Amino acid sequence: MDNDGRPSVTRDQDKVWDYYQTEGVSIFEFAVPRLAYLFNQARRFAGGRPIRILNIGTGNGWLEKRCQEAGWESWGLDPNPAAIQLLDAQGISGVVAGIESIPISSGSFDIVVASEVLEHLLDDLLSLGLGEIHRILKPGGIFLGTVPYQEPLELRRVVCPQCFHVHHAFGHHQSFSRKRLTDLFSTANLQPQFFRTRAFPGFRRRNLTGKLKSVVWTILGPLGAQAADAKIVFSARR
Prior knowledge:
Elements: H1 14-20, H2 32-46, E1 52-56, H3 62-69, E2 73-78, H4 81-88, E3 93-96, E4 109-115, H5 123-136, E5 137-148, E6 157-159, E7 166-168, H6 178-187, E8 191-198, H7 208-220, E9 231-237
Parallel strand pairs: 1-2, 1-4, 2-3, 4-5
Antiparallel strand pairs: 5-9, 6-7, 8-9
Helix pairs in contact: 2-3
């Protein structure tokens, strides 16, 4: 146990995200098609009413800003202070914390979003994080997100040429199927609403060849093709 009585957890990627939230923040521009899709799902759930929404893993703050523009109370949560400072500069509420222990009152949010987050978590963080998401959702609230579709983790192992540490190229620890997500959500008392398999290739700033590849990925994504970087889009209700 930690000194404050919370269960001890294993965090292994803080230094990685220190880089991406500062020098490498431009990488999050590629997430816009995926986040725009999730925003539209959230807007359908909101049905024109004002809602309170939390995004876990803020990236460059695109989703939080879009939600704020929709008139919602928009929040971000990230363990990296630089990520939250970026939100603060835009007048958006943010909390520096990990998914495993969210310092927010129970039943606070209509929607919680975690897109391309769960696969980065070791087992202890994943279990605690889903429990925290259930806790901070309002009764009937929605958990929205994406994870890679049935990713073969062993095929993306790389070796550091300096320290020889073997790791996943993108820091993934988890591979997900619809059944595994169903089981995990059930354990956290979250009721699955839908699972959709699709890809989110970008079209902006791509040449003709790149645009053609994006079209092919869009077609192959629903089939779960690894070449298309297919995702499982999920929705679960508290």
